[in-house]
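Posting for a labmate who doesn't have an account.
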Amino acid sequence: MADAPTVRDRLVRPLARIRPLERLSLTARILAVNILPLALLGGGIFYLDSYRAQLLDERYKLARIEAQITAEALAGASRERQDALLIQIGKEQKMRLRLFDPKGRLIADSFKLDEPGFTLDNPDDDPFSLRFARLLDQVVDTLVSAQPVPRYIEPEAQTADAWPELVRAREQRLSQIELRQARDRTPVITAAAPVGLQGATLLTTRNAVDITEAVRAARSTLGFGVLLALFASIMLSLFMARTIVQPLQTLAKAAQRVRLGREREVEVPRLPDRPDEIGVLARAVSDMTHALRQRIDAVEHFAADVAHEIKNPLASLRSAVESLGTVNDPDLRAQLLEIATHDVRRIDRLVTEISEASRIDAELSRATFEPIDLASLAANIAVSREGRGLNRGHEITIERPERTVAVMGVPLRLERVIDNLIDNAVSFSPPGAPVELTVRASGRTADLVICDRGPGIPEDARAKVFERFHSDRPEAEDFGNHSGLGLAIARTIVEAHGGTLSVEDRADGGYGACLVVRLPAARSDENEP
């Protein structure tokens, strides 16, 4: 019975059905999940600073207009009317209004004429929530590098000279604005405006608590948004953990079964619906496992073939050696010694060929390819074989194009391919028949064709001739002189160079077979030093 889904599974599974997320790379997903809350928090902090600046700017304009309108109303009023206006406007607008005469002396104060329109908060008596809010205000100001605001302090001497904005207003005959900060970090806006033409001035003071409250309310909304983004980030992190860890665990289990070798046909999931790095890894591991399985199978078959091929000459050698002790006839002993010597040479040849066949792939995987003139390489090999008497009286003819046909490869290994193919053609050609080599360029490939005039290779046997230890030589004198690995080694080397080795009929329709080596032609830039 399957386990009941946990709360985490119920939250994460709906996210797993969001297909566009699966098309993003893991790097993009991780960056998005980690950047989302930080971006929201950072953007919100700067938005709050801009929001506060906008509110203050609007309040500056309002304070300037209020000061100018009040100053105009006071300019033509009597003293009694001025006091009445100060009291009325102070109560309605919750401001403090002070009127100074031309000499800078205080002549009227709305807070002294009537009850104050506002009181500044004493932060020492505030609850923890307000103290914490002020701490957050300070943190935000530090993060946005806000300009420091001077502290609002009531001067002891209530004269116009104690207020810089009043001094400027008297000198410039224009309204002036100043921003200060109360002890509870709320803004205090003062506005000064000239009253009439005799030099009197008006000072208005407003404690804009509503601005601080609006900013703190917006910050609370931002905090809720950050918490929501953090929750979404956690959910997306769990989703990513599910989409990353689960397939990795599946791949690890499959790799473990392959390593232990307990299940012969272990299928590593390829995850075709995953275009991200996990899907690429799954397909790479699957392909690697398939290639490893093929390599293991090839090694097993190769070991079995080697055991079978060595067993025959060993049995013959054992029989000859055991018979030597019981045979007194000199001719028969000489014949047995010849058989033993032949078997030893055959075993030595097999061991040499097997050793070379087993290390070809490893050597070519580390080798550095270089440009090779295919026609010149073939001509040099033919001349070398002729000098060593390996052509058995067969003439090696070479047909080559006028221009150089170059390929990229390892000269020593391609030399082995050509030597094996010429040796194969010589062994099947009738006495005195020539062996024909043709080098030609064909588009993006370079071809080397080696033709003999032997019995040819039937269509149904052309794939078998490249199998290891396959040999179809009816001549008695050739028995034991060929390991059956020559064409297999040649094909392995050619395929390691990105080419193909195949069998074709002679172009002239005559008897014989043609072995065609087709390799990628070297580009012009590869031929340059």
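Reply:
Got it, the structure tokens are right above this. Residues 33 and 236 are 7 Å apart (CA to CA).
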